[in-house]
Amino acid sequence: MNVNSTLARHRARLRLMLQDPDRARRLILERLLGTPPLRTPPAEFGWMDVSDKACGIEAVDWQAALDLHRAIARLEPTNAHAQYRLGRLLRYYHRDVALCHLEAAIRLDPAFGPFWSTYIDVALEELSVDDALRSYDALPAPVGDAERDARRALLLHLFRVGNGDEAMRRCGDLFGPRCRYVVERPDGPGKYSMRVEFHRGHYGLVYGPTFLGWPFLVDRLLSLNGYLTKFSNEHSGIGAVQITVGDAPEGSGVQLCFSGNMPDHRLIPDPMFLASRAYEAFRLKTAAEAPPWDLREPKLYWRGSLTGQAETFEEIFNLPRVRLVDLAKRDERIDAKITDLSQFGPLLPELQIRCNERGLLGPKEDETRNAHFKYLIDIDGNTNSWPGLWTKLSSGSPVIKLKSAYRQWYYDRLVHGVNVWEIGSLEEGVPDALDRMEGNPDLACVLAQGGRALTSAMTPRTEYPVFREETRRALG
Predict the structure, then answer these.
(1) How many helices (H) and strands (E) does the chain have?
(2) 1, 40, 127, 262: which sits with the fewest CB atoms below 10 Å from its CB?
(3) pLDDT tens-place string over residues 161-170
(4) What pairing do the DSSP bridges indicate for beta strands 334-340 and 297-305?
(5) What is the pLDDT of residues 307-356, one digit of tens each?
(6) Residue 67: predicted pLDDT
(7) Which contacts of 318-323 are long-range, i.e. CB under 8 A and separated by 24 or more positions?
(8) Which domains does the chain have, with CATH numbers?
């Protein structure tokens, strides 16, 4: 088949994707993409619209999505986003080809940060560190905000591949003006922790040989830059403290952490709260779109991942989040579904089959959906869900909180019956709480207003004194 007929076939598929998405999806799933050009009337359409639709079928039919992305990239060779999306799709199967398309995207638009992040990730997977860095250096310099995005991605991914020295040489200043070193030492803490060493107005970070260096762990540490810099400026002494950047405290003894369950756990504001500026985007969107409380759907709503301490199917199906969804099947006032099973990947696909059979699964929904229901519930997983309780409290609906041993830095401000309704068990506590609030709307409104007032008063600036006090206590 010559080039013209190939392009005609692709154009026909693309037109159908826009004109009749359902029919196109059905034909793709039936593997009819190899048939002669589909006879459809010509239509005007935007290439990015087609690309969006191609992205939508990637999980169901990767080959069909690849055909569509390739067609777009051929027909729109100077479209940086088209090159990027084709490269992103190819990264897990043909990384060398993916790199060519990602490089093309960067050359076309070096000011778009996500291009750099994906390129760096793929380059460090496909090439040696030296070759990846040479390729990176040969690209045009990142422009504007993309410069920090590119250097941050380089820092994170160099840590991930175990080259902390090169990460610090190139990008160490991202840790802040008062950070003098980030080094590996044999006596460094564990997989998820670093040691912060304060020294008369400056600080250094020490990690051990077992530190995982995953990008999200380093990213969490970067979110604390402002606090560490300010504390260093105020602290004229010498001392060291362990800071755990994993989900839960690591090891025993005094440590700064984001969730904890022991007296030695010094709780500080979590990185999601800090990086999002107290969930600013969520608060603005909720304020603009949320209906008044009395017009919200009169149900208890919950969506979330399947997480918790479990290793067997029996243990998994006894987790509180599963039990809530089971309870929802018996109580029509509750709308609860599990949206993600990835934590238990080794047990897939059997776990997914069992969850489907029990009717536990539902699609992921935007967290602002919380503000469309009259009642909400917060249930811990591995530890506290850092954005979970905070965003629910700020949504303007009363929040039922299932008690657990884990706490966050602001939990001492939670007051039962004032800004939250605490329960000790799901099966008895949830129906009882709903009965009380349905029978006494004034109680529900008090809780809703109290929760919103609590979170409205918290910003990264107002919460810095908590960090300062807990760090001083940890230093002794």
Answers:
(1) 21, 11
(2) 1
(3) 878 888 888 8
(4) parallel
(5) 998 999 999 999 999 999 999 999 999 999 999 998 998 898 899 999 99
(6) 79
(7) 320/379, 320/380, 320/402, 320/426, 321/379, 321/381, 322/360, 323/426, 323/427
(8) 3-160 (1.25.40.10), 176-275 (no CATH), 280-458 (3.40.50.2000)
